[in-house]
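User: Can you fold this complex?
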Amino acid sequence: MPIVEITRCEEFSASHRLHNPALSDEENRKLYGPCNNLNGHGHNYDLFVTVCGEIPVQTGMVMNLHDLMWILREKILPQVDHKHLNHDVPFLQGVIPTAENIAVSLWNQIEPEIERFEGCRLHKIRLYESRNNIVEYRGSKS
Ligand code: NI
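Assistant: Here's the predicted assembly.
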């Protein structure tokens, strides 16, 4: 049976500050530039979540995209949308909220939700911090 990938895109808005407390203020400014701004700054993130699996004969769908939308809108995005990622999000505490770290943390939140659906697995997360800055994560197993 062919393995097919399906993707749902959702967006969220959040603010963050890139700052490593182990470095001096000057080193942080040099490393992160304007993203080190003391009071943070915002992004409109686009989150692409790709699930893969075989196509069940009975439904013809790897996973109902409506279910994937519901998981993202009801369970995942409310944790980050209109939040300050440095302060408001328990699963991001202790990490520098770069797009890379956000992608891995979102993966860890989304994966158990997908595993409830038989035959489906989370395949890839693609996070657009802006149109030009994009991070992809495929999990630690691949
Ligand atoms: Ni930023």
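Residues 12 and 81 are 5 Å apart (CA to CA). The domain at 3-13+41-137 is CATH 3.30.479.10 (Tetrahydropterin Synthase; Chain A).
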